[in-house]
Design goal:
Blueprint: E1 2-4, E2 22-24, E3 35-41, E4 44-51, E5 53-59, E6 76-80, E7 86-92, E8 95-100, E9 106-113, E10 120-125, E11 128-133, E12 144-148, E13 155-162, E14 175-179, E15 182-187, E16 191-197, E17 205-210, E18 217-221, E19 224-228, E20 234-238, E21 246-251, E22 258-263, E23 269-274, E24 283-287, E25 295-300, E26 311-315, E27 318-322, E28 328-332, E29 340-345, E30 359-363, E31 371-375, E32 379-385, E33 391-399, E34 410-413, E35 419-422, E36 428-433, E37 436-443, E38 450-456, E39 461-463, E40 466-468, E41 486-487, E42 498-505, E43 509-517, E44 522-531, E45 534-541, E46 548-556, E47 559-567
Parallel strand pairs: 33-39, 33-40
Antiparallel strand pairs: 1-13, 2-9, 3-4, 4-29, 5-32, 6-7, 7-8, 8-9, 10-11, 11-12, 12-13, 14-15, 15-16, 16-17, 18-19, 19-20, 20-21, 22-23, 23-24, 24-25, 26-27, 27-28, 28-29, 30-31, 31-32, 33-36, 34-35, 34-37, 37-38, 41-42, 42-45, 43-44, 43-46, 46-47
C-alpha cells in the first residue's frame, strides 16, 4: 500500500491510493532566551514559555473530532534518510503522520491510517518504521504495522501488519523498543515483553518472551533490558539469550509507579520516571555500581513543584524529560546526584495541573540536534536545546577490491540508544550524536563484517571513510570452512571444574567469548580479538566459581548467541 504523493518511486502501490501532502506554515526560529509568545494553532491562541531553546515549528492537523471522549496525539520518533534528510513520525488518534523537517516549513509528506486508539508508538530500523497501538481488532488493523520510508519524500509504503496469535487472540502493545535487529514489544494484551528478530524487516520472527510482570516500557542497553513495571518497579532482565530472558534484579521502592527508564551514557546510572497522579511525580536517579543493590542518588521534580512526569531519554550529558502539563524539561545529568535544569519548552501553557495532558514524548537524537516533541493537545513541535552539544560524522564505505562505493551497508552505532544508519546509492552515510567515541559495527551481505570506532566532534562535521572486504566465493571458496557463525553447547555440561566451548566463523572477524553469571556480570573472558575463518575450541575453568548457572556469550559484529552452562560441585 502506497501512501503519500504519487511519484516515480511508487514501486509498491498495490492499491493505487495516494494522499495529497499538507503544508503548515508555522515554522519559526525563536531567539535564544527566555520569552513568551503567541501561537495560533487551529484558531486557538495561547502563550508558550520557553527557556534556552530554539523553536522551529508546530504542526497540529490530525486532532480527533469525536464529540465524546476525543483521543489525542501520543508518541513521536525521528527518521533519518540515507542522505541525512530528517523526518518526524507522530502518533495520531487515527494513524501516524510523517512530517518533513527540512526547509522553512513543516510539511506532512504522508499519513499512515491505523486503528483508532489513544496510544500509538513507533521505532525505526534502517528505513522501516514499526508502529504499535493498544487496538485489538485485527479487522480494523490491529497489530505491528511495518512501513517502508525509503521512497520519501514521494511516498511511504505500508508493507504489512504483523499479527501474533500464539499467546493472545487480540494483538496489541502499549510501547515498542528497538536495539540492533531486535524489537521489544511491551504491555498490551500480552502484558509482558515480546522479542522479535527483524534481520529481515519485512518478515519479523519471534525470538522470545518474558512475562515476569506487566511491562509498560523497556529500555535496552546491550544485552540488558530495563523493564518498567509500574507499581512493581524496575525489572532488570538479561536478554543475551533472546529465547530465555532471565531476571538480574528487581528494583522495588516505596511509591513506585515506574513508567519508563533510561541509562546514563556510561551505564553507571539509570533514570526512572514515576507517572503517579496521586503519589510522588518525579524522576529518580539510581546508581548501578552494584546491580543487585541499586541505590537512590537523586529525586527531581518534587522540588520544582512539577506535575505528572511521563518519559525520560538521555543523550550524552542531557536528560530530556516529557513532563505532561509542565512541557519538555531538559536537565544536565553529567554530575551524579546533581541534575540541573538547563532548558524547557512548555507545549501546554494552559496550566500545570495534575492531569494527563501536554508533552507526551521527545526524540532528541536527530543529527541536526533538533528534538521532536509530541503534545497530546497541540501535536508536533520541533525545538533545539542550546546546551545540546552535538557533532556529525559523514563518510563513504567502499569495496576493498574495486574501491567503488557500496550502497546498502548497515552501520550499527552502539550508543544510547543503539542507532542504525546505512549507505545510500552513492555509498555515503551520516550520523550525528553527542560528542565522544562511538563504536560502529559495519555489515553487508557478501562482505566481511567490521568493527570501527569513530570520534563524534564537539561541534561541526568530521569525515570517516571505511573499506570493507568482499568474501571470496566460487572457485576460491574453501569447502572446509563453516558456512555460518555458531556457538556450540559446552561439553561436558554440567561440569566441574573445566569444560570446552567451540565457536565457528565463516569469515575472519572480530569476536568476543565471555562467560556471565545470572546477574549479568562477566566472570571470564575466553576470547577477545580477531578470529580466523574456521572453528576454535576454548577451555573454561570454573575452579574459583561457586556452583550455579552461567552463560557463554559469543559476539561478533554480525552475530550474537549464548548458551546456558551449569557448574556442579
Amino acid at each position: 500500500m502506497e501512501i503519500g504523493r504519487a511519484g516515480k518511486h511508487a514501486k509498491r502501490n498495490a492499491l493505487g491510493c495516494s494522499f495529497r501532502l499538507r503544508k503548515f506554515n508555522r515554522c519559526m526560529r525563536v531567539p535564544l532566551l527566555t520569552i513568551s509568545f503567541c501561537l495560533g494553532v487551529m484558531g486557538i491562541a495561547s502563550a508558550q514559555s520557553i527557556q534556552n531553546m530554539e523553536l522551529f515549528g508546530n504542526l497540529d492537523t490530525h486532532r480527533d473530532t469525536a464529540v465524546v471522549n476525543p483521543y489525542r496525539y501520543s508518541a513521536c520518533w525521528g527518521y533519518v534518510a540515507a542522505d541525512g534528510h530528517e523526518y518526524a513520525l507522530l502518533g495520531c488518534p487515527l494513524g501516524t503522520q510523517v512530517v518533513d523537517l527540512e526547509g522553512p516549513s513543516l510539511i506532512e509528506r504522508a499519513f499512515i491510517p491505523g486503528p483508532r486508539n489513544r496510544w500509538r508508538e513507533m521505532k525505526m530500523y534502517t528505513h522501516y518504521a514499526f508502529i504499535v497501538s493498544e487496538a485489538t481488532d485485527v479487522a480494523a488493523g490491529a497489530g505491528l504495522q511495518i512501513v517502508d520510508l525509503q521512497y520519501l519524500p514521494d511516498s511511504v509504503h505500508l508493507i504489512k501488519t504483523y499479527v501474533w496469535t500464539d499467546t493472545v487472540a487480540r494483538p496489541s502493545a502499549h510501547t515498542i523498543s528497538q536495539n540492533g535487529h531486535f524489537l521489544y514489544l511491551n504491555g498490551g494484551t500480552f502484558n509482558g515483553l515480546r522479542i522479535l528478530d527483524i534481520s529481515d524487516p519485512e518478515n519479523p520472527v519471534k525470538a522470545g518472551m518474558y512475562s515476569g510482570f506487566y511491562v509498560h516500557d523497556t529500555h535496552i542497553r546491550n544485552d540488558t533490558a530495563f523493564a518498567s513495571c509500574l507499581a512493581n518497579g524496575l525489572d532488570v532482565v538479561n536478554v543475551a539469550d533472546k529465547s530465555s530472558p532471565s531476571r538480574i534484579t528487581l528494583l522495588q521502592y516505596s511509591g513506585a509507579h515506574t513508567h519508563n527508564s533510561w541509562t546514563s551514557r556510561d551505564g553507571a546510572r539509570v533514570f526512572t520516571t514515576d507517572e503517579n497522579p496521586i503519589g510522588e511525580k518525579s524522576m529518580k536517579e539510581w546508581d548501578l555500581a552494584d546491580i543487585q543493590n541499586p541505590f537512590l542518588r537523586s529525586t527531581t521534580g518534587t522540588n520544582l513543584g512539577l506535575p505528572i512526569v511521563h518519559n525520560v531519554v538521555v543523550k550524552g550529558s542531557l536528560a530530556y524529560v516529557a513532563w505532561y502539563t509542565a512541557g519538555l524539561r531538559v536537565f544536565d545529568v553529567n554530575t551524579p546526584s546533581s541534575p540541573v535544569q538547563v532548558g524547557y519548552f512548555d507545549s501546554y501553557p494552559q496550566d500545570d495541573s495534575v492531569i494527563f495532558n501536554g508533552n507526551w514524548g521527545v526524540d532528541p537524537f536527530l543529527p541536526s540536534g533538533k528534538a521532536i516533541v509530541s503534545d497530546m493537545s497541540t501535536g508536533l513541535h520541533v525545538v533545539r536545546c542550546v546546551d545540546d552539544r552535538r557533532g556529525v560524522v559523514t563518510g563513504t564505505v567502499r569495496d576493498a577490491a574495486t574501491n567503488q562505493p557500496i550502497p546498502g551497508v548497515l552501520l550499527h552505532f552502539q550508543g544510547q540508544p543503539s542507532l542504525t544508519r546505512w549507505t545510500g546509492s552513492n555509498g555515503s552515510y551520516i550520523f550525528g550524536f553527542a560528542p565522544g567515541p562511538q563504536t560502529a559495527h559495519i555489515e553487508k551481505t557478501g562482505y566481511l563484517p567490521k568493527t570501527v570506532e569513530v570520534l563524534v566532534p564537539d561541534t561541526g562535521t568530521t569525515s570517516f571513510d571505511f573499506v570493507i572486504t568482499p568474501i571470496t566465493t566460487g572457485a576460491g571458496e574453501r569447502a572446509d570452512l563453516p558456512r555460518s557463525f555458531a556457538l556450540d553447547q559446552n561439553f561436558p555440561n554440567p561440569f566441574n571444574p573445566t569444560t570446552k566451548i567451540t565457536i565457528a566463523s565463516p569469515v575472519r572477524t572480530e569476536a568476543t567469548l565471555r562467560v556471565y553469571n545470572v546477574l549479568g556480570q562477566v566472570v571470564a573472558t575466553l576470547f577477545d580479538g580477531t578470529t580466523e575463518a574456521g572453528e576454535r575450541t576454548l577451555s573454561f575453568d570454573a575452579a574459583g566459581l561457586p556452583s550455579g548457572v552461567y552463560f557463554s556469550v559469543l559476539r561478533t559484529p554480525a552475530y550474537a548467541a549464548s548458551r546456558k552452562m551449569v557448574v556442579s560441585k
